Every structure is written in C-alpha cells, then in structure tokens.
C-alpha cells in the first residue's frame, strides 16, 4: 500500500457520542423530562420501561412529539400556544432541569472515558463530539465531569443545534468529518445505541459500541467491536482494533 493511502487510513481522530457513551446520562434526562411535565401541570410520567422504548427516537423534542402524537393524539394543544411552541417550552424546562442536575453531580463519566480521552490527546489524536443532544447539555457535562479547563480537548463539536437531522441520519457525523478535514477511514466513532451506530456506519466510520442499561438490547450489527465499557482500553488497543477488518 503506498504511503499516502497508508497515512489516510491511520487512526487520527476519535469521535465520541455523548449520552450513554461519555456518561450514563439518560436517567438524569428521564428525571428532567418528568420534572418538566410536572412543572407544566401535565399528568404525563415516563417510567424506565417507557423511556427505554422512547429512546428509539433521537432528540428530546422529537421524543416528546412522538409520545404526544402516539399516546395523546386527541390533545391538539395544552396552553393555547400550539403543539410546536408547547414542545419547545417543555424542552426548555427539561433542559434547565437537566443542567441543574448535572451541575449538582447527578452524572459521572463512564469507566475509562477520561483516561482514554487524556491519553488520546497526549498521543496526538484529535477528539470530536457528534451528538443529538443540545449544546447546553454538552457544556454542563464537560464542565462538571471533565473540568472547565479540559472541555477544549474536543476540537470539533457537532450537536442538535448544528445537525438538525437526528441519528440514525448520518448528518452529525458527516459534518464532524468535514470540520475535522479527515476521511472516515482515519477516524473511529464511539457510540452506545443502535441509532448512533447506524448514523456512524452510514458516514463510513468504524464504530466501537459500549452499550448501557438503556441500550443493551439494541441490534449492534455492523459494529467494529462491542465492549462492556472503555475501562482499561488504551489508544494502542484502539489503533489495533481500527486496523483490523470489520467483525
Ligand atoms: C441522545 C439523545 C438526546 C438525549 C436527550 O443523544 O437522543 O435526545 O436523550 O437530550 P446522543 P436532548 O446522540 O448523545 O446519544 O433532550 O437535548 O435531546
Ligand atoms: Mg448515545
């Protein structure tokens, strides 16, 4: 293989999903949704089983709209401001509740994540984030879980505000690759869900999946590897996995 092609396929960047991958956040998201429903005076309450199925829908606003249309189709309005405005208002309440929870320490990074991020940075790999969550949620997580001085470790962040087409659509990953200025072949995606895996694979990325309690039952066909978590996973091991053929 000529040097140029070889260089193009060398691992040069890690692209992290946020929710469920960097940190186990969905329990805090679930509590925040329920807090918003109560604050709005709605008798809606999502339990873990329902939320686990609703997580098939990426994006908090899209998830609430799906629930409203499928569980309360008769409700055309709540407070006279129309469906879209009400969803936006509920999502603002939810995001404020989630931000307060993360600031209060409700969310920790998953095992091995911080060590891998720091090692990758020290070894010259570029780090990016590709998520369907809202920018507020990323900022508060990075500030509280990684530390305000470390949040600049991620040279590219694409999120719900920059990539409106949600996973499994590949838009967020395609935009991340464009901004990194790298071919998919020299990057590795890290995900936790089937929607995320499908989005990354559709963008041409080899993807390592670390499932969690909300996603363990998902179909991870097409993943490069499925690992319980990133504990003890080194950059050297990622280089080796990246260089190996797809499962
Ligand atoms: C997971 C999601 C998000 C979160 C809720 O994002 O689908 O919708 O569940 O956050 P990721 P928002 O791609 O990081 O796994 O309410 O801000 O959408
Ligand atoms: Mg995720």
Tag the structure with descriptive keywords.
6 strands; elongated; 247 residues; six-stranded parallel β-sheet; binds xylulose-1,5-bisphosphate; 10 helices; alpha/beta; single chain; binds magnesium ion
Explain this structure to me?
- The chain is of the alpha/beta class.
- 46% of the residues lie in helices and 10% in strands.
- The protein is built from 10 helices and 6 strands.
- It has helices at 3-9, 26-39, 48-54, 60-71, 82-103, 113-122, 135-147, 171-180, 194-202, 235-243; strands spanning 13-16, 126-130, 154-158, 187-191, 206-209, 225-226.
- A 6-stranded parallel sheet has the order 3-2-1-4-5-6, with helices on both faces.
- Helix 7 (135-147) links the parallel strand 2 (126-130) and strand 3.
- The chain is elongated and about 65 Å long.
- The relative contact order is 0.17.
- The structure holds xylulose-1,5-bisphosphate (XBP) and magnesium ion.
- The site of magnesium ion has 7 residues, from loops.
């Amino acid at each position: 293989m000529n040097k140029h092609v070889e260089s193009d396929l060398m691992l040069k960047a890690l692209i992290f999903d946020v929710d469920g991958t960097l940190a186990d956040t969905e329990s805090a998201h679930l509590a925040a949704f329920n807090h918003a429903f109560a604050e709005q005076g709605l008798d809606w309450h999502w339990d873990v089983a329902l939320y686990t199925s609703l997580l098939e829908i990426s994006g908090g606003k899209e998830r609430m709209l799906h629930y409203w249309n499928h569980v309360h189709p008769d409700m055309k309005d709540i407070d006279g401001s129309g469906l879209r405005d009400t969803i936006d208002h509920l999502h603002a309440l939810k995001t404020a509740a989630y931000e307060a929870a993360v600031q209060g320490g409700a969310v920790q990074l998953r095992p091995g994540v911080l060590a891998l991020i720091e090692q990758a940075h020290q070894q010259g790999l570029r780090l990016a984030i590709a998520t369907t969550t809202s920018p507020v949620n990323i900022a508060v997580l990075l500030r509280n879980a990684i530390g305000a001085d470390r949040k600049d470790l991620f040279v590219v962040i694409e999120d719900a505000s920059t990539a409106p087409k949600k996973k499994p659509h590949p838009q967020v990953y395609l935009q991340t690759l464009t901004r990194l200025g790298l071919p998919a072949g020299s990057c590795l995606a890290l995900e936790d869900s089937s929607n995320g895996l499908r989005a990354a694979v559709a963008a041409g990325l080899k993807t390592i999946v670390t499932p969690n309690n909300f996603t363990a039952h998902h179909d991870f066909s097409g993943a490069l590897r499925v690992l319980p978590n990133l504990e003890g996973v080194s950059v050297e091991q990622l280089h080796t996995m990246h260089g190996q053929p797809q499962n």
